[in-house]
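User: Let's play a game. I give you a shape written as tokens, and you guess the letters that built it. Ready? Here's round one.
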């Protein structure tokens, strides 16, 4: 005789809630997701350095491999050289942004206020030609309502303080990255020991290679964007041209939103320090740069290897920006890829991965017509 099966907690919950259908199950999953996101937000200080170190290790592992393969570096020396190069780039960018932001703050306190008043009067005079000056002054009575210089100064000071405090976080990130790169061969060896037929293994390796390729191509595209933005601003004599180039480089890692945000400060600066002609030229130049790189060069090299809809990418940027701030926006795309991979390998939640999928349909698997035959 077979012994009676022991009732699991899942069975007892299902039997105790006989009316629980798909709708209630969906609400339960949504509630769990909200609780999880809140927990991730509260654990920001612990999780962000780990994730930053992980993604830096993914993109930098190719450098370590090249040093070992072509220069015959021992593994420890290749890791040390890679971490030193990454640390120099990180601290160099942070120090440069801090210096340029301080210079910008000093300039804002001087000439910008007078020029803002001049542009405000020019705008009102132009609106007066159409009989709209009184209505415009009723809506915007002072130049500060258009562009509050003091508020910009306070925001700049706050950002400068955050940049300086981020240096200590970068130190922790580099330490964690050193250990991750050092144990990467051990991780790969353990991964190869898994059965070759394991679908999860193949999907994970494919996603890992895709993320590495994405970050590498995105770094090159961001560098090109930053260089072109600096060159255009310098050619038009826009103040802080190098700062706008660095901002364009950093924010280009954020899909869709980053390039738009990076264009706003130089456009306003060109308007205040130059005129409407300079403003339109800078606007057109930024649109051309972002269109050429974002819609031309990047898709050629990246394609749709992740198979994620554009709207989902935009929503993920907003979501992870709310959870983890600017760093969450930078990591939104890789995190979304890993979540999609986990959903695809889940028996209950694979339908979510299908909904957000943007991969092209395969001609070898045509959709069969609906049939009523049993």
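Assistant: Ready! My guess for every position:
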């Amino acid at each position: 005789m077979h012994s009676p099966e022991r009732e699991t907690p899942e069975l007892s919950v299902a039997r105790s809630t006989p009316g629980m259908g798909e709708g209630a199950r969906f609400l339960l999953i949504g509630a769990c997701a909200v609780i999880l996101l809140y927990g991730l937000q509260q654990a920001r200080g612990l999780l962000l350095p780990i994730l930053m170190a992980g993604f830096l290790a993914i993109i930098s592992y190719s450098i370590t491999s090249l040093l070992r393969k072509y220069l015959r570096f021992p593994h420890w020396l290749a890791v040390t050289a890679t971490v030193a190069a990454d640390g120099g780039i990180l601290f160099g960018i942070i120090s440069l942004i801090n210096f340029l932001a301080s210079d910008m703050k000093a300039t804002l306190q001087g000439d910008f206020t007078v020029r803002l008043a001049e542009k405000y009067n020019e705008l009102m005079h132009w609106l007066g030609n159409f009989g709209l000056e009184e209505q415009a002054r009723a809506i915007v009575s002072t130049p500060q309502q258009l562009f509050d210089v003091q508020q910009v100064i306070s925001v700049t000071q706050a950002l400068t303080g955050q940049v300086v405090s981020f240096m200590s976080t970068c130190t922790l990130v580099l330490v964690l990255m050193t250990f991750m790169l050092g144990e990467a061969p051990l991780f790969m060896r353990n991964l190869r020991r898994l059965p070759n037929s394991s679908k999860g293994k193949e999907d994970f390796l494919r996603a890992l290679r895709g993320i590495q390729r994405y970050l590498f191509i995105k770094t090159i595209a961001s560098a090109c964007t930053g260089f072109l933005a600096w060159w255009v601003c310098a050619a038009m004599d826009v103040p802080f041209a190098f700062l706008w180039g660095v901002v364009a480089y950093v924010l280009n890692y954020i899909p869709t939103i980053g390039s738009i945000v990076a264009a706003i400060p130089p456009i306003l600066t060109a308007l205040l320090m130059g005129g409407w002609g300079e403003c339109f030229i800078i606007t057109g130049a930024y649109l051309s740069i972002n269109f050429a790189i974002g819609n031309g060069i990047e898709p050629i090299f990246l394609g749709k290897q992740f198979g994620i809809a554009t709207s989902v990418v935009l929503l993920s940027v907003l979501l992870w920006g709310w959870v983890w701030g600017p760093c969450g926006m930078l990591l939104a795309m890789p995190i979304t890829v890993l979540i999609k991979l986990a959903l695809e390998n889940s028996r209950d939640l694979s339908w979510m991965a299908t909904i957000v999928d943007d991969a092209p349909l395969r001609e070898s698997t045509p959709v069969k017509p609906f049939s009523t035959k049993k």
